[in-house]
Design brief:
Blueprint (H helix, E strand, L loop, with lengths): L40 H20 L24 E4 L1 H10 L5 E5 L6 H12 L3 E5 L1 H7 L8 E5 L7 H10 L5 E6 L4 H13 L4 E5 L8 H6 L9 E4 L2 H10 L3 E5 L5 E2 L9 E6 L7 H5 L3 E4 L11 H17 L1
Parallel strand pairs: 2-3, 5-6, 5-10, 6-7, 8-10, 8-11, 9-11
Antiparallel strand pairs: 1-4, 2-4
Helix pairs in contact: 2-3, 6-10
């Protein structure tokens, strides 16, 4: 720089290895400008990852860094397929085996102290040809979410659902007026199991559930049904409203349950083909399902109880219909 070239250190001495070097003359001044506040330590990695993802998406036109749903580097979420389940605990396992729940394997942890429940479970499994496998307690811990298995677990295979048309076919084969139950907004598998048990007890021909937003036949439902799920078909409907319309076209009366129904159970004629639609205790029947019901049935109650549990209400109605058909 003019006027400062004689300043000590301004120009490197000629004897140095790199030779004489002068300043940049302001050509790299932009590189010295500030880039804003430094992000927090927890955000630095995320910010860098976002920068890399954005660059990759721009250059490749939405390649690996962009999911099909427009997400940023995240694969689409897929619903897991139905698979085998494990019943955990000595009492639940013994109840399932006593009820005749179809099982594929009985797991017993090595070194587990045997009591009457464990001995009976092993004996029932052996008598029914169920594989009995001795595994380490660590392996059994991995099979359970909370480790509360008490040294025993029962593997239950996925349930094989029937088609809704199969339920009417079964009624025709038995030469009986159809008695079916459809569940709407029932998400508790214990309610599902209890309804299946009631339908089987009062001569029903099957239960239909929606494919989405509904409880399915899990190990809990198996246990609650006391083995009735092995004798009574449970069907899955892709669209419950459409299935009810199809049954109505085939001469089946669609009856919904509600505390504010227009028909009392005491005045209802249940001798013809019927499908009883049961909604949840909280939400009740959905609007589309309710609009497709021929009538809304209510259960007369003497006490100040506003509503009954879904499975209890279904059992009361089924018992009343079975009494009429016997008479």
């Amino acid at each position: 720089m003019a006027g400062n070239s004689s300043r000590r250190g301004a120009v490197r001495k000629s004897g140095t290895k790199k030779g004489q070097v002068v300043g940049s003359g302001g050509k790299r001044s932009k590189g010295l400008e500030g880039r804003g506040a430094t992000p927090a330590a927890a955000d630095r990695t995320k910010a860098a990852r976002r920068g890399r993802t954005t660059t990759r998406d721009t250059s490749s036109g939405g390649g690996r860094g962009q999911s099909a749903g427009g997400g940023r580097g995240r694969p689409p979420v897929r619903k897991p397929e139905d698979g085998p389940e494990n019943v955990l605990g000595r009492n639940p396992v013994l109840e399932c085996l006593r009820a005749g729940v179809p099982a594929t394997a009985l797991y017993v942890a090595s070194g587990t102290e045997a009591d009457d429940r464990l001995k009976e479970s092993v004996q029932i499994a052996a008598d029914n040809g169920i594989s009995i496998l001795e595994v380490s307690r660590i392996d059994l811990d991995r099979m359970s979410a909370n480790g509360m298995h008490q040294g025993i677990a029962l593997q239950v295979p996925p349930y094989r659902y029937a088609h809704p048309d199969d339920l009417l076919s079964q009624a025709r084969q038995r030469q009986e007026p159809a008695l079916l139950v459809a569940l709407d907004n029932i998400t508790d598998p214990r309610n599902l199991g209890a309804v299946v048990r009631s339908v089987a007890a009062f001569g029903g021909h099957g239960v239909v559930i929606p494919q989405r937003r509904s409880a399915s036949v899990t190990a809990v439902a198996w246990r609650t049904s006391a083995g009735a799920a092995a004798r009574l078909p449970v069907a899955r409907a892709t669209n419950l409203t459409r299935t009810l319309k199809d049954w109505a076209d085939k001469g089946v009366m669609v009856v919904g349950l509600d505390a504010d129904g227009d028909t009392s159970l005491d005045d209802f004629d249940g001798t013809g083909p019927i499908v009883v639609v049961v909604g949840s205790e909280g939400k009740g029947l959905s609007r589309l399902v309710r609009d497709n019901c021929d009538s809304i049935l209510s259960i007369p109650m003497a006490g100040p109880v506003e509503s009954l549990n879904a499975s209890v209400a279904a059992g009361v109605v089924l018992a009343g219909i079975a009494r009429q058909r016997r008479g």
